[in-house]
Amino acid sequence: MQSRALKVGALALVGFLAVAATGFAEEMKFKADLKGSTEVPPVQTSATGTADITYDSATKNLSWTIEHTGLSGDVTAAHFHGPAAVGVNAPPVVPIDMSALAKGSATLDDAQAADLSEGRWYLNLHTAANPDGEIRGQVMKAQ
Is residue 2 situated within a structural domain? Predict the structure, then answer.
C-alpha cells in the first residue's frame, strides 16, 4: 500500500511541476503607433496606423494586428526592423507577407525576443511613393 501511495504522490508532483513550468511562460503585449513623422528621415504624410502585437514566450510566437489609413498607395512591403532605438534605422528582422498584413504571425528566436521585449524594434509600412517607409512606429510594451 505504501508503494502505491508513493507512486500516486510522485505522479501528482510530476503533474504539478509540469503545470508550474508552463506558468513561467508569459504572454507579452506590445503596441506601435505608426506615423510619417517617426520615419528616419521624416515623411510628410497624413497616413497613420496602429499595431497590436502579442508575444508568447512559451511558443515563441509573435502575432500582430495592423490597421492603417491615408497611405499614398498600397503597402508594397512591411517589416519589423531591429535592433534599433527610436530615431535609428535598422535592417528588417521579420518580414510581413502582404497576405498577412492585417493579421499575421511569426516565430522568433531568443535574440529577436530579447530585442523586442527591450523596445528595440520598430514596424515600418512601405509604399511606392515612399519605398523607404511611409509610416513607422516603435514597438513598445503596452500599458
Answer: no
CA–CA dist 30, 35 (Å, integer): 17
Q: In sequence order, what are the beta bridge partners of 65? A: 52, 103
Per-residue pLDDT band for 8 (boundaries 50, 70, 90) equals: very low
8 phi, psi to nearest 5 deg: -65, -45
In a domain, 9, yes or no: no
Tell me the CB-side half-sphere exposure of residue 4, using CA atoms within 13 A.
Answer: 1
Q: How far is Cα of residue 127 from the mean position of the Cα atoms in its chain?
A: 21
HSE-up of residue 5 (Cα within 13 Å, Cβ side): 2
Higher-confidence residue of 3 and 67: namely 67
Q: Which domain holds residue 50?
A: 26-141
* Residue 1 placed within a domain: no
**Measured distance CA(78)–CA(67) in Å, rounded:** 12
Residue 4 lies in a domain: no
Tell me if 60 sits within 8 A of 113, measured CB to CB.
yes
Tens digits of residue pLDDT in 30-85:
999 999 999 999 999 999 999 999 999 999 999 999 999 999 999 999 999 999 99
Q: What's the structural domain count of the chain?
A: 1
